[in-house]
Amino acid sequence: MASTTSKVSATYYNLIDGDWVPSRSGGTFENRNPARSDEVVGLFQQSTAEDVQAAIGAAEHAYRSWRLVPAPRRAELLFRAAQLIAERKEVLARDMTREMGKVLDETGGDVQEAVDMSFFIAGEGRRQSGHTVPSELRDKFAMSIRQPLGVCGLITPWNFPMAIPSWKIAPALVCGNTVVVKPASLTPLSAVHFVRILQEAGIPPGVVNVVTGAGADIGHALLVDERVQVVSFTGSTDIGRVVSQAAAPSFKKTHLEMGGKNVIMIMDDADLDLAVEGCLWGGFGTTGQRCTAASRVVVHEKVLRSFLEQFVTRAQALRVGDGLDRRNQMGPLVSEGQLQTVMKYVEIGKREGATLACGGHRLSQGEHARGFFHEPTIFSDVVPGMRIAQEEIFGPVVSVMPCRSFEEAVSIANGVQYGLSASIYTRDVNRAFAAMRDVYTGIFYVNAPTIGAEVHLPFGGTKATGNGHREAGVAALDVFSEWKSVYVDFSGRLQRAQIDTEQQ
Questions:
Q1: Residue range 263-282: average pLDDT?
Q2: Catalytic residue among 257, 375, 392, 471
């Protein structure tokens, strides 16, 4: 588990049926440090559909025995894995910063979330409760239980490269499924580290398989293979739509976690100092590369000027640089492509007539010369219908909009295609509860930013953000299990349910 710090990179392989093996293509791709793009973190397998099919075959075979392992025993392996991850947290966080870019405090949090999720889901090994209910007939017992699905295809994103794999792998395993994981090509190392630890904890061969490579090449193979019973995908709404369409012909169960355009509403009675802190963290944490990032801020006109002055001043003071330097508060974008997307939207915002209050430029001099850095950027005078206020940018760009009332703020909040996370800053408890009721999102915060979900509550969104399923909490079990209703008649005679008993 030692971290590679030189420019000589290690080669990492696919995990299929318990063995780390090269792709049948013979090809590899580079995983580069976004803060120092001349540093190759590792070489990973450029896999093909043939590799995916082998992984699915291994998972299908392993499922026959894994589903029969008692759930508490499956959970004990997850508990052990969580302990191992916690022991290696610092090394894992440093490798994650090298491959993804976010600062060490955040990558440490990412690793900790994998620990927390693994511990929490391990607890479900002794629960996974169904229902026992009274039967309408004499001498008859009625209950419901969960049953596993089979092989699960898991497609994970690059922004939380260990936390999100844990969100999917842990509940899938505790329910008795086997998995094939396709991590994001930009950040495969953290997923490989997580799975190596699962192996070390005692997960049997074939129960967890990892195949790296481009989504177009191997993601599709996961989607169309009829041996895969469920696909869990986290990524953009556009790709989520492709996943849904590809899985539909085989009636494959799909779980989609997609985009967001999240809002912080700041009322005229808000604690402005607290609101500014929340907007800084919500807008620029992880360089804005979170599905829950607060890329929209709606401020009551009575406090708009004061808020904007403080927000701009604090954003300009953020220290941007290599995430391995603990003095830095914001790291790079994950890739040149993501940086170009941010720069494109800055130009769109200027053309639309928004005022560039601060930032707006690539950082390319001195310590920033080798990385994908961008200034924290704030637009003011933004109209809700502008593209920068409607479309997910996934970068350090925040749009500030005025409102005249609480009702207008809620209308603006709901006026996008997404519905993941939202927040309100107010001292009025009545407004807070009205906002909780009226803002149509899957997650809501009062006097806190739009990021900071905890593993023991459901995570997910509404509208174009998701398809109704949830990650985290007990709700995660619903993605990776099916309900079975069981009736035990101990009367010794035929009893007919749903028959008019008065006619019997």
A1: 98
A2: 257
- Contact call for residues 183 and 161 (beta carbons, < 8 A): yes
* 3-class SS string, 276-323: HHHHHHHHHHHHHCCCCCCCEEEEECCCHHHHHHHHHHHHHCCCECCC
Q: How far apart, in whole angstroms, are the C-alpha atoms of residue 240 and residue 234? A: 8
Residues in the chain: 504
Catalytic residue among 291, 358, 375, 471: 291
List the structure tokens of 352.
């639309």
For residues 56, 57, 62, 68, the Cα torsion angle rounded to the nearest 10 degrees is: 80
The b-or-e profile of 467-488 (16+ CB within 10 A means b, else e) is bebbbbbbebbbbbbeeeeeee
Could you tell me the CA-to-CA distances from 285 to 50, 148, 179, 330 in Å, in that order? 39, 37, 31, 7
**Which uninterrupted H or E stretch holds 463?**
strand 462-463
* Residue 263 confidence (pLDDT) above 90: yes
Q: What is residue 214's predicted lDDT score, i.e. its pLDDT?
A: 87
Work out the end-to-end distance of the chain between its first and last CA atoms, rounded to an integer number of angstroms: 70
Return d(Cα 121, Cα 112) in angstroms, integer. Answer: 14
User: CA-to-CA distance for 197 and 182, rounded, in angstroms?
Assistant: 17
pLDDT digits (tens, 9 = 90+) for 42-61: 999 999 999 999 999 999 99
Burial of 245 (0-12, 13-18, 19+ CB in 10 A): exposed
pLDDT of residue 501: 60
383 φ/ψ sector (left φ>0, alpha ψ -120 to 50, else beta): beta
What is the signed CA dihedral for 165, 168, 171, 177, rounded to 10 degrees? -110
Q: Per-residue pLDDT tens for 264-273?
A: 999 999 999 9
C-alpha to C-alpha distance for 231 and 475, rounded to whole angstroms = 16
Residue 2's pLDDT is 39
291 catalytically annotated? yes
- Name 212's Cβ contacts closer than 8 Å, sequence gap at least 6: 12, 14, 29, 44, 45, 46, 47, 182, 183, 185, 188, 192
Is the sign of the CA dihedral 436, 439, 442, 448 positive or negative? negative
Instruction: State if pTM tops 0.85.
Output: yes
